[in-house]
Structures are given as structure tokens and as C-alpha cells.
Amino acid sequence: MIDPAVRLALYRDMLRVRLIEEAVADRYHLDNEMRCPVHLSIGQEAVSAGVCLALRADDQIVTTHRGHAHYLSKGGDLNAMLCEFHGKAPGCCGGRGGSMHLFDSAAGVLMSAPIVASSIPVGVGAALGLKQAGSDGVAVVFLGDASVEEGVFHESANFAAIRKLPVIFVCENNLFSVYTPLDQRQPDRPLTDLASAHGLASLQVDGNDCEAVYNATARAVATARSGAGATFILADTYRWREHCGPYYDNDLGYRSVEEFERWRSRDPVDMQRRRLADGKLLEAAADEKLAAEIADEIDRAFDFALNAPFPDPRTAGDHVFA
Amino acid sequence: MIDPAVRLALYRDMLRVRLIEEAVADRYHLDNEMRCPVHLSIGQEAVSAGVCLALRADDQIVTTHRGHAHYLSKGGDLNAMLCEFHGKAPGCCGGRGGSMHLFDSAAGVLMSAPIVASSIPVGVGAALGLKQAGSDGVAVVFLGDASVEEGVFHESANFAAIRKLPVIFVCENNLFSVYTPLDQRQPDRPLTDLASAHGLASLQVDGNDCEAVYNATARAVATARSGAGATFILADTYRWREHCGPYYDNDLGYRSVEEFERWRSRDPVDMQRRRLADGKLLEAAADEKLAAEIADEIDRAFDFALNAPFPDPRTAGDHVFA
Amino acid sequence: MSSPDTADGQRLITGAEALREAMDQCMAADDRVFLMGEGAADPKGIFGTTSGLVETYGPDRVIEMPVAENGLTGIAIGAALMGRRPVMVHQRVDFALLALEQIFNNAAKAHYVTAGKHTVPLVIRMIIGRGWGQGPEHSQSLESVFAHFPGLKVVLPSTPRDAKGMLIAAIRDDNPVVMLEHRWTHYTTGDVPEELYEIPLSGPSHVRKGNDVTIVATSYMTYEARAAVDAMQAAGVSADLFDMRVLQPLDLGPVIESVRRTGRLIMADVGWKSFGAGAEIVASVVEQAFADMKAAPVRLGLPDHPTPSSRSLVPDFYPYSGDIVAATANITGAADRLGPVVAALAEARAQRPVDVPNPDFRGPF
Amino acid sequence: MSSPDTADGQRLITGAEALREAMDQCMAADDRVFLMGEGAADPKGIFGTTSGLVETYGPDRVIEMPVAENGLTGIAIGAALMGRRPVMVHQRVDFALLALEQIFNNAAKAHYVTAGKHTVPLVIRMIIGRGWGQGPEHSQSLESVFAHFPGLKVVLPSTPRDAKGMLIAAIRDDNPVVMLEHRWTHYTTGDVPEELYEIPLSGPSHVRKGNDVTIVATSYMTYEARAAVDAMQAAGVSADLFDMRVLQPLDLGPVIESVRRTGRLIMADVGWKSFGAGAEIVASVVEQAFADMKAAPVRLGLPDHPTPSSRSLVPDFYPYSGDIVAATANITGAADRLGPVVAALAEARAQRPVDVPNPDFRGPF
Ligand SMILES: Cc1ncc(C[n+]2csc(CCOP(=O)(O)OP(=O)(O)O)c2C)c(N)n1
Ligand SMILES: Cc1ncc(C[n+]2csc(CCOP(=O)(O)OP(=O)(O)O)c2C)c(N)n1
Ligand SMILES: [Mg+2]
Ligand SMILES: [Mg+2]
Hints:
The complex is a heterotetramer, with two copies of chain A (322 residues) and two copies of chain C (365 residues). The mean pLDDT of chain A is 98. In chain A, helix 1 (4-28) crosses helix 2, helix 4 (78-85) packs across helix 11 and helix 5 (119-132) runs parallel beside helix 6 (151-162). Chain A contains eleven helices and eight strands. Chain A has 322 residues and is of the alpha/beta class. Chain C is 36% helix and 18% strand. Chains C and D meet through helix 4, helix 5 and helix 9 of C and helix 4, helix 5 and helix 9 of D. One thiamine diphosphate sits between chains B (65-66, 114-116, 144-147, 174, 176-178, 243) and D (38, 67, 69, 91, 95, 98).
């Protein structure tokens, strides 16, 4: 049984990520000041929360184009993220990366990459680096269901297996690659078979249940820290909004409204809220206060970003070489 | 039970390949006229024979750096191969490719590639092409045990599975990638797990038993022709000589003499010879006659290659574009 | 190059529509032609360039790819070797970085290494991203990289008319053809014939005629160069402008002839300047026209750093018409007359956002 | 460039030994340094350049790779981001074609995109194949491709002394460094200091001093150029020769200064001429030294076709010293004096097999 404080923290984290991403969505076309692609994780928050809350600050994560939630749950700085979306100087990349290049060294967010599967080996390499340095830290690789179609996933998994690296692959299966459903891209077999074929331990969890994700991750982390090697966690979940951008896109017809509603009825934030309420761990007033605090934090962060300076154009050529 | 004529043909094919490759080895440094890398299949002849004799002439194969045996068993022209090794104009590539670029359109040898795993997707594409053209032909992809470490194998297997393509992956597991043993490169699990993870049927056979390989291939071919999709065949075997070049290299110490002798005692050519003799299908005299005929063919082919003209240097720039 | 800004009695469609039409007509005409791409059969149809095709030709000819660029390129090559005619599309050229081994080895060399016996009639369409903060890995260009490998044809259409005609020619060509489409050229409009027609895959198009300087541009830079040339015309400086729409095979004949006449060369690259396509063009022209040159050649192109996302960092990254006029001013000695032209272009540019192809564009991709 | 043909009192070792020694000393000095490669820990030790290291440093620091270039490159990058200092080796640069996405995106851009906060201290050694019928896919060169992507240092040592000093500098450098080693340079011998020393990763080395023509060569072509220069010297033509051993960052200062003096430039590329490194060098030099140039620049390099395997097809494929002298003859007007030099070099070449680095070489790889 998870510690009540952690159960609350999981809820708080998901709620915060949800509200931040909704604020990004709401404001995206309001004034068109976030001029970069955005890939929202709304609907998938249980994965980032469940995984990251089972990690230490010095553990490392790498993520993908859909990385805001991972960055935030791992402790990435909100101001730096929003400034990055706005192309501003205090952005985590100084405005050079946009939403697909988030990192926060202090929080252990090592990198995100916009090229599908490109950060997977980098995460495995982080695990190698940790191991070489004699640390008991672990690396987590967040990946989408499409990224196992890229060969580099397999190359990375194989190496993680043979070197027993302290790495955890967290595959968020949201059933789609952009608008293309899984069954058009992969055969009908459990995705975890891929892990076993590479000699990796694997776990499948309800990716909308933050506690299930947390428990699975805690197990995988213990395995990794003990030197027993890598685990592949498959988390089934669903993206609510369009692949890239702020809107809903069910009107495009690539998925059914029934499917969408089925998943939405299993809202990870709501599920945990009800669970906590049922367990008398969260009262309505406290919940409202939490939401208000978060809303306030978000408003301040957007104010910060909107008022932050742009990077000086004369610096555009800096830092090509160290 | 395999037809006696086929059993004899399997033997004949292996013997021929063996004698050709031994002749290449013997002559390689004799006069240093074959000035290109050579990767001999001596010890692995049961695979090429068993697979290719289960195919039709219009079925297609693709192979790797270690492709002489596949080329020959599928019916590739011997003169054209030896001329290619000698860099001569009548070579299958006009001397442009050397031993790692063999093909013979008439025989259905579509291509060989010196980059590990590079021909795998090409073979899958050949199957796609056959299917699109409405043919019931199949494509065979020969690959080494190391090539499943390359991501492109997985990308190719996945596509073959989802499109149910008429392709057969034949993995010759000779336990080594150059001098590196399998267990340094891959985890300890059945190699066929990789196939299942991609939703492919798989079969494992004794790769030194040409009849076992033949039977497995015949099954896979039937599946493919019927439209039921791809199969992965794992054939366990062993390379006798050095990775690249004419000599033995056990002196390097990367493998044990015991291991080598264990495999050599299971010589695929000998095994089939004894089997045929036991079954009264091959008498010593007939066997000797066969060997003599083949030796004669080989002598003539080397004569042809040695006497063939070099390509005209002025043609070196031709055929960059069609 | 047909002029996309003419109108009456013409058939004005966008670059994206032109590409879609070419594909549709080629698939109707030849059932060996098929399409593969991530998004090829999805509701957005690769920026509209493949929309509706899956409905007409079905999922066996409009293949929605798994996300596996290297493998699928090899698969396309295999099918091409068997006589099929695949067209593969990548929404960003950057994704094709994963497929270069297949492209450079199996596609580019099969014909050569078989002494002409094999052909790989494969087209790979790749989109060069720009704008809306795409950042460093969705905005590379890479034409000089593709052009370095013998055996690949490399084309960069800039107008809708060229896009259609060159795609048709590419599909009918027996060689592997790499087609780089600057994303902003998808949004341009131009007069496009309805029928199947080819624009040959050789030589530059001669966009403007003039005598004072020769300007060579690739892809989208043709638009900036044209704006520059037209603005200079009014100030009495006339430029010969070539759209170097085919980089391989490289036919510099018309450019060299022009430089012999004008004595001056300005090269405007769509990609990075260093080790870029313009380096080859400038080096080759100088090797052959040195004696007639009156001034040092000038190259414009992206400076030696990755593409930053923030729109505040890109104004000096992407050269524009004003830079071309300024370069002309420098080497022709017409600084007096051209100074005001530069000022006017700079002024006009300051009014427009730098990160969108047109004022209505709103991302997010 | 130290002169590999001097002898007395010097420490003569091969290029391969120099590389091994550099690696050994760096691993001894800094335990963050580790090696990865297919064959890195095998009995042949990547042409001897890694021999014995696994015995000294163990399999955790000398990592025998699975055959998975792209993934392992990403893994090396991840370790580098964590402060380790990986050195990866490919027996042929062609194998790295599979890893270009990782190299061009994650390695080259991490420092830039993080505004300087991340560094990727990664070295990738890659061998350029030549000879013994390797054929088209084991013989490519690609330096211009790597040099096109900002953020990568690109170096091509040609002497044993440079090989050691530049590998040490590369390992200590905080940037990703791509090191291209022409296979034949592994067989050359030269004076190599025993201690740890660095050859800075910037600028060309000035191999010969002269006044009549400036010759710039990359990698192995430095040897051909040196032979040409020394032969011309006897005929009274003096050449300034630069080994352009660093392509990124590109420092052409000394070359431009030289061309201003000689008025003439010959570029000898180790790779394909078209869209090759020499294109950038020639274009840049001409842009800056045009006014002082007396003749059109000349480029030598591999012609626009893949490498054929047959030794009968390569004599015109690989330029040699005689071609450099012939080019000098053309642009200096010293044809009378240089004609016999060309003839002598051609004669000498006809005596040697074209497909081996030295007469004892016997393949098979
Ligand atoms: C190599 C590469 N190919 C294609 C793309 C375009 N692309 C961006 S996101 C995406 C879908 C990825 O799907 P998945 O991994 O399931 O992640 P999700 O978006 O569902 O979170 C694709 C194809 C890319 N960025 N990189
Ligand atoms: C991409 C690539 N990496 C490395 C090599 C060098 N290489 C040539 S053959 C070989 C071993 C391949 O082993 P396997 O696939 O098992 O085939 P085998 O040689 O055992 O028949 C390697 C690593 C290559 N040719 N291509
Ligand atoms: Mg997905
Ligand atoms: Mg093997």
C-alpha cells in the first residue's frame, strides 16, 4: 500500500500537470505567443506522475516530443518551460529549443528529442554513465507506442539487457502515432513481447492509474538499483487532444467518439481524486484550495514568461562549440 | 520424406559449393589475383542448399557479405562469380562489386550487400513487389546472427508481419560476428523470440542438416505462397574458416578448438553423404565421379576468369544514372 | 519558371495541390506506382499533398508506414528493384537521417554496381521545415549531402508548376530521385497545367534575365531572389536569376554562360552555407569562368549554427531579399542606387512576422 | 606536420600504433575515458589501433559493441552527457551511415540547443577504406557531409604524429569530434613523441613552403601532394602545401594568406570532388582572395561515381601526385619544366599496384 502522502502527491502532480497543459491549450491561439509545436499529455498524466514520483532527484529521465508532463513531474522548472514555449531568454534552452527540447539538469531531466525514438539510446547511455560512475542512480526512458517501430529501440533494449543497465523503459501506449492506429503499424501481439525478446523484464499497467504506475515503477527501480538490470513498463493510456496543438480533433474521424469517451470516463486525475476522497484523504475544500494554488502558480508563470525578454539576436551564433 | 532426387541434389549442391569455396581459398593467396575481401561459407553449406532447393527459379533471395553459397545454390552463374572475384569484365557486376556484391537476375539472386543487415529490408521489399505484381513468388532473406542486432531487422520484420508478406527470413546463427561470440552481443534467450515478438511464425532447425533445412523451408514457402505470411527460420551452424579470407584462424584464440572440432565433426556435406550411402542412394564411385565433374567445372571456371578481360578503365564512369 | 503571381485565364493552385495532382495522375496512369509515408493515408495527408489518395487507390497502394524510416526505405528499394515504382514521403527531411544508409548505398549505387543491370525507380519526397519555432531538428535542409552521393538525382522545385512537373518526371525516371520541398513552397500559388506533363530533371530554370549580376538560388530562396531582382530592376540594376532546381545531375552550363557575361555571381543557398550546395556551384563556376569574373563571388546561406526555435533568433539566420540586394550593391558598385532598395525591403520585412509563410499561418506544426 | 621519412634518433611508429598509444595513455590518465567498437576488444583490435586495451582496462571500459551503430552512438552520447568520455570506433566510415541521426542531431546540437549547458565529449573514429577491391560500400569518405553540420569538429590526421596528438586533443575536447582516418595512413611511419601531447584541433598544418602555387590536401592526399611538391622542387617550381587536417572549425587563414602570395590554388580532396570539402575551401578562398588570384583554382578529387572494386577501374578514380603536378603545370605555365616530372611520376606509379598501401599488403580486408 502506498504511503498516503505519496498518494496525495500523485494527485497533486497530475492535477498540476493537467492545469498547466490546459492553460497552454487555452492560451495557445489566444495571442499566438507560443510559436512552436506543442504535444500535450492531457489524459496521460498518470504515467508521468506514477513514474517520476518513484524516482529520486538524481535519477535521470529522457523523453520525446510529448514531454511536458515528464519534465514537470520530474521537477522541471515551470517558468523555464513556459519561457521556452514563448521563445524567451529564461527558457530552459534560452528559447533555442521550443517545446520539443526540454531539459532541467537540476531535476534530472536529461533531454527530450523531437525525433521519434531518438532519445531512447541516450537514456540507456545515461544509465551506462551512472553505472560507470559507480552511482546507484537509474535512468528512465519515456517512449511512445510508435517508437518501438524504430530500430533504435531494439538496439537500445539489446544493449541494456546484455550490460544489465539500470534503465527503465516506460512505453506510453496511447494507441496512436499521430492519426494512425496501432493495428495499422504493428502486429497483434502483446507489446511486452518485444521486451522479453530482448531478455528484459516487463510489466504491463493501467496507464491511467497513477498508483499502479507508481508501484510498477518502484519495483523496476528497486531491480535497477540492485544491479539486476532493466525493466520495460507498458502503460496503456490515451491522448485526449490533437496530436500536436491545443484542440480536440475527433472531428478528423481517425478515432471513434465512443473510444474517446470510454477513455475520458477513466480520467486519471478524477480517478485518483475519487480514490482519495473515498479514502478520506482529500476533502473538497482542500481539493479546491490545491487547484487554486496551482492556478495561481500558473498565472504567475505565464506572467513571467510573457514579460521575460527575448534572447538577443546577436547571441544566435553562440555555443556552437563548447 | 524428401524425394530421393532432391536428397541427392542437396548433396550435390553442398559438395559443389564446398569445392568451389575451397578452390577460392586455395587460390586466394596463390597468385593474389582475387583482390577483394572473401567471406567463405565453408561449414554452412546445408543452409544455402536446404533453402534454395526448396525455392523456384523465380523466387528471389537477398544475401549478405557471406553470400557465395546462397548465390551458387540459387543457381547463380559460377563464371560470373569468379570473374567478379577477379575484377574481370564478365563478372556479374562487371568487376565493380567484388565478392560482396553478387547478383544474378536470371537465377533470382536479387542482391547481396556488404553492410550488415542492409539487404534485409530489400528482401522484404522484393516480397512486397511480388505481392503487388500478383505473383505467388516468395522472397528469402539470408541474414547472420549479428544482423538481428541492427534495428533495421526489426523494422523489416514488423512490416513483413503487418502486411503478411511472402518473405522468409533465414538466420544463419554461426555463433560469431567476426571474432565476437553471441553471448557478448545478445542476451541469453532463444533467437526465435525475436520473430514471435514481431508476430512472425518461426522454426528452428539444425543448420548442418540440409534435409531439416529443406523441410523447414518447404513449410515456410507453402505458408508464404498461400498468402499466410512470413516465417523466420533459425538455422544453427558454424563457420570453419576465418571471418574474412582463406585461412583458418583458431590460432587467434577467440574460439576453442573443442568447439571447432565439435562442429567440424558434424560436417554438413559428410553427414548427407553418409545418409545417402546408408540409404543406398549414393555409391562411392558415383560420389567420386560427382566430385570429379565438379572439380572439372571449377577448373574451367577459374580458367575462364583468369583469361577474361579486365573492364576497360574508360568505362569506370558509366552507369551512374540509368 | 512560370510566374505564380500572374492570374487571368490561368489555373492557380498551391504547391501542395500540385503535388497531390501529380501523384494522383501518376497513380491513375501506372499501377506500378505506389505511395508510402507516415501520414500518407491519414486525414491530413502530409500537408494535403496525399489527401484523398487512399480513398481512390486503397491501402495497398497508399501505404501508411510504421515509424521506421530506414527499414521502409529499404523495402521501397526492394520493391523498386522488382519493377514497382514507389514514392516515399517524409514530413521532414530530418526523419530521413535515419534512412541514409539505404539511400546512399542501396538506392544510389545499385545501378552503378550492377553495371547498369539494376534500376531503382524510387522517389523520396522530403519536406524542409521552416518557421513556427520548429527548432533545430525539424528544419534542416541537406541538399548538399544528398548531392554528394553519385547515383541520386536531387531536385528542389520551388513553384507549383515545377512541383507537379518534376514529381511526374521523377516518378517516370528510372533513377532514385530525392525531392526536397521547402515547406513554404507548399503554400505558394501558381499556374499549373491540368494534364500530365514533365519538367525535365536537368538544368536550372531561368527566372529573370539581366546583365549586371548572376544570381543563383535554391528552393525557397528563389522567391527571395526574385523579390530582390524585381526591386533592383526599378533601381536600374538588372540581374540574371537562376532557380537551381536540379542539383544532381548538375548542369551549370547556363549559369557559367551568364557569369561570363555579367562577371559577377551571387549564390543564395536554402541550407547552411558552409559545405553547402552553393560551395560546389561557386567553386565550379569560378573554375570555369574565372577569366571573365570582375568581382569575387558571394555566397548567402544559413550561418554555421543550428536553427533556433525562438523567432527572435531567426532574423539573421534566414537570408532574405534585402541581403541579396546588399550583396549586389557590394559587388556591382551600385551601392548608391541600391541602398534605398535595401532599406525598403528591410522595412517591408519588419512589418511581417519572420516565422510564418503567410500572415494566416498559425502552426502548430 | 612532422616528416614521416626522417629517421635518426627519432621514434618511428606507424599511424595505427600512434592511435593505440594515444588511446592507452588517455585511458590511463582519465578513467572517464572508455572505448566502444565492433572489434574493439577482439584479437585484431581494429587494425591494431585498440590491441591490448581490453586486457589492461577490462570489458567495462573497452566495450565490444553489438552490431548496432545507431543505438550505440546514442548510448555513447547519453554517457557523454553524464560526463563520461566515450570514444567510438567504426572499421569503416560507411557503417556510421546508420548512425547519422544520432550524430547530427543529438551529438552535434546538444550544446547549442541547451545554450551551452550540455556538452557531448564524444570522439567517433572512422576509417576510410581504400584498396584491395573493397568496393563501393567500404570506401566512402564523407568528410564534407560531417563538416556540413554545425557543432561537430571534423578532423583528418594524416601522419602518425598528428594521429596521436589529434586523438588526444579530441578526447580532451568537450565537443563531439569526428575523426576520419584513411586506412593507408595507418600503415605510414613517423616520428611520434612518447608522452601525452595535443595537436590543436584547428587550422591546417603547413607541410611545405613555396611561392608558385598553393596546394591544399585532405588526409591521404597530403602524401600524394607532398610527393608532387618534392618532385616539382627539383624542377624549380615551389609550392606551398597545407594539410587541411581540421575541417570544422574551418580556419582558412593561412591558406588565404598563401593564395594572396602565390595567386594560385590547387585543392586535392580525398573524397568525391562534387559537393566535397574542396568545394567549400575553394569557394571560401576565392571569396576572400579573388583580387590576388592569377588563375582559376583547380580541384582534384574522386569523380562522380561509386568506387569500383576491380583494380583495373581505379587508376583514374584516385588522383595521385602526377595529377597534382599536371594541374600545377596547367596553371603556372611551367608545363615545359613539369612535363618530365609528370612523366616520371606516372612511370613510377605504373610500377606499383594501385590497390595496396604498400607492396606487402595482401588483404583480405
Ligand atoms: C523519426 C521520426 N519520424 C517521424 C516523426 C513525426 N512524428 C512526430 S510524433 C509522431 C508519432 C509518435 O507516436 P508515439 O511514439 O506513439 O508518441 P505519441 O505522439 O503518441 O505520444 C511522429 C510519427 C518524427 N518526429 N520522427
Ligand atoms: C553496418 C555494419 N557494421 C559492421 C560491419 C562489419 N562486419 C562485416 S561482417 C560482420 C559480422 C556479421 O556477423 P553475422 O551477421 O553473424 O554474419 P557472419 O559473418 O557470421 O556470417 C561485421 C560486424 C558491416 N559490414 N556493416
Ligand atoms: Mg502513441
Ligand atoms: Mg555470425
